Amino acid sequence: MVGIWLSISVWLDSACLWMTVIAVIDIALMLRLTGVSSGWPRFIGVLLGAAIIVFASQWFIAANAFGLVMGLWPLEAAKQIGSVLAWEFSRLRVIQTDLIYLSLSIISTWFFGFCGSRVTGD
Questions:
Q1: Which residues of 60-77 are buried (b: 16+ CB within 10 A; e: fewer)?
Q2: Whose CA, among 20, 26, 108, 121, lies 20 to 30 Å from 8?
Q3: What pTM value is reported for the model?
Q4: Domain for residue 120, yes or no?
Q5: The domain containing residue 31 runs over which residues?
Q6: Inside any domain, residue 119
Q7: 46 within a domain of the structure (yes/no)
């Protein structure tokens, strides 16, 4: 998912925070297919998975941008940029409409985490 996000971000030249909704759907589907019951376990799994994907994607987007300037591959640049530089780069690229996608992803995390089939012991 991080690779897809990075590719789309390079292609569109934006932070692409709309991909958080797709990441949430992807993780929720994988957790459902593996049999994780709905409720807190699935909610925490989707929330942590999406947070890791968002963090890694934004880090690699910043690393790719600075790597191009320094003549490094994105993986090499990801090791060399610091957290402050990655945070500032990501913060400056986020536009106001991206915040709508972040809130939509939180709502969809709640929906996919708590709603769904519950197995009862009847």
A1: bbbbbbbbeeeebebeeb
A2: 108
A3: 0.84
A4: no
A5: 2-114
A6: no
A7: yes
The answer to whether 11 and 93 are in contact (CB under 8 A) is no
The H or E element containing residue 62 is helix 40-70
Q: Extract the tokens encoding 105.
A: 């992803």
| Residue in 105, 2, 99, 1 with CA at minimum distance from that of residue 46 | 105
Q: Please report the pLDDT score of residue 97 as a whole number.
A: 86
Joined tokens for residue 2 = 């991080």
Q: Determine the 3-state secondary structure of 76 from DSSP.
A: helix
Model pLDDT for residues 82-117, shown as the tens digit of each residue = 889 899 998 888 888 888 998 899 999 999 988 865
Q: Which residue has the tokens 């963090």?
A: 55
What does the block give as tokens for 120?
């009862």
